Amino acid sequence: MRNSFIAAEIASQPEVWRQAARLAEESASALPQSGQRVAVVGCGTSWFIAQAYAARREELGHGVTDAFAASEYPLQRDYDLVVAITRSGTTTEVLQLLDTLRGRQRTLAIIGDPESPGTTAADAVITLPFADEQSVVQTRFATSVLTLLRAGLDEDTEPLAQAAETVVGWQVPEQVQTRSQFTFLGRGHGVGLAHEAALKMREAAIAWAESYPTMDYRHGPKAITDENSLVVFFGERPAGIVAEVEELGALTVAFDEDPQLTLVRCHLLAASQAVLKGQDPDNPRHLSRAIVLDEG
């Protein structure tokens, strides 16, 4: 991982989070305002960040916030603002949705590439070129967008950036590396981040990874758990759940920290698993940096 893009991009997260927080101040009028009904859309990683933000915005009492895969946005609904997240600014489903909504609902696009078509597809745009990446596997763009949006909720994100300075140096424990099945469980805004962690494992490490709300684990998913499993918790852990998982033979990992920081640890885990398998963590099989669909 020493020479990979993803290693450098993971390590850069504390500083790019600070840049995202400063950008939130500069872009305050474009970001969702307290009391607005907001929908947030994206594909893949961007959808999971949308889920995390939607949960956090409602947790903090700023108003109704829904998250959708861009391809599944309910056109019959009305929102004060639709926020579209796309690193490349070329994601077909996102651009198609923004075109459909033009003149019908107010839209905001949050984009990594300032030269992309997405910069003219919405009523307003915020670009994060400092968070864009060369690796196909997203890490810092996703967390920087979430930091931007959280700062727009008047959260103080500097403690997150300070904590991340230590977290990016986390050494993945040897016993974690020996597991072959990975389950990520979250509560609140940790649910979307658990989904994103599982996606990182599937993308970078081509690993068997699943994710669920923590309380839903007992409703079927626990059947996959055995001595080959690693279960990672994002956020609050209900009484008895850790012991229950460990009784099944799984190794559990949990930290008393913001779930956004735990996601960074999972970035490191996914990258290290890829290297252990002899895979390129920057260029997973079957994937490209931007998903542009054929019109046909």
TrEMBL record:
The keyword Iron-sulfur does not apply. SUPFAM superfamilies: SIS domain. InterPro entries: GlmS/AgaS_SIS, GlmS/FrlB_SIS, SIS_dom, SIS_dom_sf. Keywords: Repeat. It comes from the Bacteria. Residues 28-158 form the SIS domain. This is SIS domain-containing protein. It comes from Nesterenkonia aerolata.
